[in-house]
Amino acid sequence: MIPALDHIAGPAVDAAGRPTLDLPPGSPDWAARALEQRPRESRVDVGGADIEVLTWGGGPAPGVLLVHGHGAHADWWRVIAPQLVKAAGQVVAYSMGGMGGSDWRSHYSFDLFADELCAVAAATGLTGPAQRPWLVAHSFGCLPVLMAAERLGSAIAGIALIDFYLPPPGQPRARPQQRKIRRYDSFEEAIARFRLSPPQDCPTPFLIDLVARRTLRRASDHWTWCTDPAATIPVPHDAFRARLRAIECPLVLMRGERSRLVDDAVTEHVCSLAPRTAHYVEVPDADHHVLLDRPLALVAALRTMLACGGPTGEAG
After folding, report:
1. Spatial CA neighbour of 136 closest among 312, 271, 313, 303
2. pTM to 2 decimal places
């Protein structure tokens, strides 16, 4: 453990300097029960970077691999993943390079992000001989999932893309904020600076507190964020439009019903590119950050998808 220093005192931290997992008082019972189901923690080396991996369960197929959005990390799935184990058998979440508890890299690319996804799936047995997992991604995570779906082909059961931002040609693009490495003298100052991107109100402050804490890291004399600013890379939208058009596996498109990022124009464009067999689901009263905004509704949608086997109607 990193020794306590009076001038940067804050919550207890793990060996990496990240605050330990605790829900604030007054959190609902369902979230506390989910958090009590601790995952197995492991790391996978991908191109010289250690990738943080969390695994729940271990039963038979289909299995699920959960992929977070930009600047997020595996802990965004902490109260969702355990609730999918009964339907999925084994549930895995990981942090992309440069985010969460994973190592930072000297450079980043979508090829590397897809490498990480495929390596984690293989290392955890999700793409083993008897497994055909679902890949489930939120926001930015949908991009490496599309690339991995090309690579893995029939080794996966299908993909679910949650609030996938792919703007129509000519529409102004949402640009990820270019951040600098920030230093804060106290935990209180740091946690007060946490913001969702894009910003939105959220009716689950206990989850905001959880992911905010786990996005922080205590260094020797200050607090800072776990996300490498260099991990913000430009998105080649035309290339991903082509990938979406060419997708061959079962596809489920999920959107926050009141998402301000994936608005009606973006939704119409994404649906126009997707195969006719794709299913489209709106999560009621959810904005862009569906995992935090309406976690139980998302769990219900994913359980239904797993039970029904996706757009083909073939249960896994």
Report:
1. 303
2. 0.94
